[in-house]
Amino acid sequence: MTIEQYPQLQIDLEKVKHNVETMIATCGKQGITVSGVVKGANGIPEVIDTFVAGGVTTLSSSRLPQLAYIKENHPEITTLMLRLPMLTEIDDMLAVADISLNSEEVVLKAINNACHEKGITHGVVLMVDLGDLREGFFDETELLKVAEKVEYQWTNLELKGIGTNLGCYGSIEPDEVNLGKLVSLAQTIEKRIGRKLEIVSGGATTTVPLVLKGGVPEGINHLRIGDGIFLRDMEYYFDYTFDELYGDCFTIIAELIEKKEKPSHPIGTISVDAFGNKPEYVDIGNRLRGLVAIGRQDVGDMTKLIPEDPDIKVIGGSSDHTILDLTDSQKDYQIGDKLRFHMEYEGLVFSSNSEYVHKTFIPIASEGIS
Ligand SMILES: *Cc1c(COP(=O)(O)O)cnc(C)c1O
């Protein structure tokens, strides 16, 4: 007998597959290949298998064990290491990644040496920092010099192309100007090496709004997309809609463990909460408060959870508890009830990683019991 366990992360694989297919088709119309990024869902095997079922030819992650699963189970898929490799993980990386994103000469040299010893070659995408100020060459001369070294000097490296990342740290939006710069750098490199680059990678989910507007400059032919396939949480922030996608592929299900009327303002001398923060508490009188058994350790900032019942408000919580305001709900919730939430990227990253959150799956229709 299987006992249902909570908290749960319920994953609708049919919807994930639809989103994968839709993203590939939408980008494909503009000559853009999608590398599916699986790190946001912790590379859960069922999710990886679903990306493959949805038709990706390339998958990426920042974590080597996730790439190892892909190589082992889907050897036909081209694997891409997203985070700049550590010097200490090069051997492990070469076993599972066909291509890596890079920005440091010493690392490239070390990869080349390791490849030479193994008698293999490795694909390289050089990252360019166009202002977001996370990874990538900032100095154009250095970029061009290293590109030529990869092309001519380090013979076990194959220069696949260049790429950029925008929006992850510096909150810079991809646009015609910064991505246009990437295209012109690609052209400069192509002139110097006398051939076309295979990959000009124009970013991640944050570039999707530009795809929908038809504003991605010609020459960008590759994006690395995870969040935009999993969730629709960026639409609110970036002011666009992608209605062909499901926004409810992932659901957090948590159990109600307390329900009581209490004041909304804590009583006594206020110092700091469990995480050293000093929150503001607003007194709106007595409220019907519910506790569900899921916390910061499972979902990160729980106030970013989106209750399926629109009349419930998430007030806050601690490591293992989330506090809800149930006062305005039409439903008369009882202890033991299971409450459902949708989430932003942070919630997905935490819940998919937590061993305390049980993963359950709604299978792809054709694979389900009919
Ligand atoms: C995480 C990551 C991506 C994918 O980001 P999403 O927001 O999930 O689409 C792409 N490129 C790099 C370098 C990343 O680290």
Walk me through the structure:
This protein is an alpha/beta fold and 370 residues long. The chain contains twelve helices and 16 strands. The strands form two sheets. Strands 1, 10, 11, 12, 13, 14, 15 and 16 form an eight-stranded mixed beta sheet that branches. Helix 1 packs across helix 2 (45-53), helix 3 packs parallel to helix 4 (90-96) and helix 6 (140-153) runs parallel beside helix 7. It is elongated. The model has no long low-confidence stretch (mean pLDDT 95). Pyridoxal-5'-phosphate binds at residues 37, 39-40, 62, 82-83, 101, 165, 204-205, 224-228.
Report the strand count.
16
* Uncertain runs: none
Overall average pLDDT: 95
Helix and strand run: EHEHEHEHEHEHEHEHEHHEEHEEEEHE
Task: Give helix % range.
Answer: 25-40%
Concise synopsis of the structure shown:
The chain is an alpha/beta fold and 370 residues long. It has helices at 13-28, 45-53, 64-73, 90-96, 105-118, 140-153, 176-193, 208-212, 227-230, 234-238, 296-299, 345-353; strands at residues 8-12, 33-37, 58-61, 78-81, 99-102, 122-128, 157-164, 199-201, 222-225, 250-263, 286-292, 306-307, 313-317, 322-325, 338-342, 358-362.
